[in-house]
Amino acid sequence: MTGYGGKILEDRSREIERKRRKWDEHAERYDEWYERFHGAVEHYVDWELLKVHLPKDRNAKILDAAGGTGRITLPLAKMGYSVTLCDISPGMLNVAKEKMRREGVSDKVEISECNVYKLRFADESFDFVLCWDGKTEAAKELIRVTKKGEKISMFLINKYGAAISKFHEDPDSALALVKSKSSYVYNEEEKYKAVSVEEARELFEKEGVKVIEIYAVCGMLDLLSIPKEIQESRSWDEKFFKQVTEMLLRLSKEPSVKGLSRHLVLYGERT
Ligand SMILES: C[S@@+](CC[C@H](N)C(=O)[O-])C[C@H]1O[C@@H](n2cnc3c(N)ncnc32)[C@H](O)[C@@H]1O
Question: Does the first or last residue of the chain, that is N or C, have fewer Cβ atoms within 10 Å of its Cβ?
Fold first, then answer.
């Protein structure tokens, strides 16, 4: 029994080590994605959807779990919130640290190297918790550190959207997903547990979270058939940017297209 438990722990720590190395390697270039049209649109839509759910009290304590280079931590800190940014990758956290220093908000941000599956925070430590990295299995742990009556936001891999976008490269896995024979999606060697909109709702409600909204994000831009040169461009027409983001914000709430999105962002309140 001890040997078996030990083996699982060893596999888990090997997996974490592999992920840490991968993200350390990506760290210096991670933010570049958000300087291009495609990334800037995604960031804008993410932020517009998040804004309306943030705590009214600017003294609130927020956890940005698996927060990487602080893409979301930075604007939160600029708004005055006290943010704890945690991540397993020291490389990503170093980029974040330097950004917070440059922007003069280091005093608002606590940076912590830690694993979202085993957070080092006490129960009900935060007034708002977000984890935007598709870590479905970490839901329980993230809910644990959210105060009762406060909100949690999780980014999840959407089962049907993922199956549709993966079909051309791996039809067997895509079919297994839509037939519910598998729940897993592989992305750049990482394994993610995918959920449908209904499964996401059930998962959180089972853990005592009242689901407020589930938005469709990411992958929706592909549906608009915007030419690749525009998507990858570092400068763009502002009117077009506004039209695209307005379109995506409207689609993100539209039940009839939610299944097509590669990712979902769930907002709920811990009861
Ligand atoms: C795609 S980035 C997302 C960063 C940020 N949430 C954002 O939206 O810009 C994924 C991040 O998750 C982190 N990560 C992966 N597995 C993790 C784990 N088990 N615990 C904490 N962070 C993890 C990676 O190091 C990386 O910084």
Answer: N
Residue 37: is its pLDDT beyond 50?
yes
Residue 68 alpha carbon, nearest atom of ligand 1:
27
Torsional sign, CA 155, 66, 205, 47? negative
Per the document, the length of the chain is: 271
pLDDT tens sequence across 244-269: 999 999 999 999 999 889 899 999 99
Report residue 246 as tokens: 């307005």
CB of 19 closer than 6 angstroms to any ligand 1 atom: yes
Please compute, for residue 247, the number of CA atoms within 13 A of its CA located in the half-sphere on the CB side: 15
Q: Give 146-168 as a 3 state SS string.
A: EEEEEEEEEEEEEHHHHHHHHCC
Whether the full predicted model's pTM is greater than 0.90, yes or no, is: yes
- Mutate which of 49, 87, 120 for ligand 1? The one with the most ligand atoms within 8 Å of its CB, which is 87
